[in-house]
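Appendix B, Record 12. Input sequence as logged:
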Amino acid sequence: MKTMTKMIASAFTAVAIFIGTNVKAQTTPPNQLRFGVGVEGLLPTGGLHDISNVGLGGTARLQYGVNSSVALTLTSGYYNYFGKKIIDGSDAKYPSFGLVPVKAGAKAFLGDGFYFAGEVGAGFETKDDYRNVDGSKSTKLILSPGLGYASKSWDVGVRYENFSGGDSGNYGTVGLRIAYGFGL
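Logged structural output:
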């Protein structure tokens, strides 16, 4: 799984470098703030896929237009990964797993509302992790490349998030965010 994670991250990076040279106008005017509220569909990868097949989240994002082609972002919210059935012949399930992401990042607009985004931050596990013998929670480093489309009111983006560090191992998620935004 680690090889798959590295391949996905490398592919996003290559796409960003390739199309990042054609940056054009964005939908957020320079020196303006926007606020968006989104719903997240999440597909766990790595060790997280061992305990969950799907997750659901909610996020809020503050965005500041630096110039006509770049915006800075600050994103936080909550991700819940629903526990899947334990394969042992019983009806038992793994417990749900929660995480609070706090990320800062940037969007580079490629033209006609399309953008490449990159975020970095911390993920705070909110529930005891079954993998830790002492039941402790970990804080994870989050690295997240993504692509999306933003209009005046809507933002739809797909991304890969890698969660690394801490006691509970490394894992990731593929996320689809659909958000409604407005100027402040």
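Residues 14-26 have pLDDT under 50 and may be disordered.
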